[in-house]
Amino acid sequence: MLDRRDFLKGVAILSGISVVGLPNISFEATNSATEDKKGLEKIKKSLQKVFGKSLKDVKVDSKVLLSAPTIAENGLHVPVSLEVDYPVENVKSLHIFVDENPDPHISYLELTELSGKVFFQVPIRMAQSSYVRGIALLKDGTLVGDFKFTKVTVGGCG
Amino acid sequence: MNIPVIVRVLPNKPKKGDVAKLMFLVKHPMDPGTIKNPKTGKLIPANYITTIEIKLNDKPISTIHNGPGVSSNPIFGLDFKAMESGVISFKMTDNHGNVFEHKYNLEVS
Predict the structure, then answer these.
(1) Domain A25-152 falls in which CATH fold?
(2) How many A×B Cβ pairs under 8 Å?
(3) For position A144, what pLDDT does the model report?
(4) Strand order in the sheet with B19-26
(5) Which CATH number is associated with domain B5-106?
(6) Which member of A114, A120, A158 has the closest CB to residue B35?
């Protein structure tokens, strides 16, 4: 028989699941929309064009820190910055991609020995809610990156 | 023909050999070529800065390459090693091939 203590435990577990689980489910639901699949194709094409590599070759690294807002009210001006905790000698360039834009390859920075730290900040336009991808190309050819989903209320590409 | 650029180095007088932050604002519409003029309904032709070469006393610091997706009047930020006092020069090229230049005097303490 179910006594009071077991019942309370069950309620606690269930509520825990609903609190933790529901946002994840809704997030996945938005990501699996058809528009996002288009964005994935775009970013794959763009990566192939720029690096000659696929999205699977980009390693998500904790040393790469992309800061972009979770919700951007105006798509005309979304401040994005990318910081990489590698020595400058090992990094060749920093790239910023936005999946859903007409041209996903937004901007990139070529580094030299005179750039003391690996840091790049640029304000970008976003057409609609999309993944922002900050990718660093290392000298040995590997790609490391950090991805973030940014929601846009008003698009900024016409 | 020139475009206004506002440059700021943080800290203002960096120590010799230290890493300082270079922030600069480029006053430019950066039209991507996909936005319509609300009055006439026609597309505004693309007009944006594609490359910015940054040099300290003719030694390259870094180069920025832009696509059409950079917002208007952008503020760029990057780090550099303040090795010596001198001139930081910005050479900007837009998608029509026009070249703009700007210079900033850097003092190192």
Answers:
(1) Immunoglobulin-like (2.60.40)
(2) 103
(3) 94
(4) A64-67, A78-84, A118-124, B75-81, B19-26, B5-10
(5) 2.60.40.10
(6) A158
